[in-house]
Amino acid sequence: ALENPTGLAVTADGRWLVTGENVLLILDASGRELARRELGGTPDCVASGPDGKIYLGMRRNIEVRDAEGLSPSLWPDLGERAWISALAVDENNVYAADSGNRALLRLDPAGNVVGRIGQRDPERGIPGLILPSPHMRVMFDAMGGLWVTNTGRHGFEQYRPDGTLVSSWYKASMGLDGFCGCCNPSAAAFRSDGSVVTAEKGIVRVKVHAPDSSLVGVVAAPESLGAVLNP
Length: 231
Hints:
The chain has one helix at 222-225, and strands spanning 7-10, 16-20, 23-27, 33-38, 45-48, 54-58, 61-65, 73-74, 84-89, 94-98, 103-107, 113-117, 138-140, 146-150, 155-159, 165-170, 187-190, 196-200, 205-209, 215-220. It is mainly β and 231 residues long.
């Protein structure tokens, strides 16, 4: 009973947060509904902080709620072009993937923007984010490293909180081990062993890549996902 699912996150205590059309669901690990919270809009993404707070990306704003999905607080508007497509939260920062402005925003716990990461800067060796559509993702690896997807370059970039580029890997290829189309990988998440799981649109599939970026294998192909492919 959820229209248009848009976001998924797992809390530190193992609960699932799922967002959809004007709704936040809190589920246990078996999928049993623990709470359903009506929202004033449809989030594009959701994240859970180390303190249990829930963060919702509401296109131009970030809405913060307590661990039960109550007591909403809306942070300042991020601008007309902003499109928050993913969130990641650690003890000191909230990172918001702003697909509209092609930047990773670093915000303090009060919602103030204190840094912009990933924008083109030749002097610092930063190539710049190419984002043909709002599928930019931000995530932490098992060691707490900060990563973003650069979908137009078909890969990943790792940054320090101050915006310094640490490393990157790109796999632009029609082959199974790479990414193609306008904007892939469209979603990604790190596992505890350092491998990364990617999802693609167009060629709809889910894959696992080893920490050295080599392909481990395909988890789900289009037929197992029930995907309808474009001709």
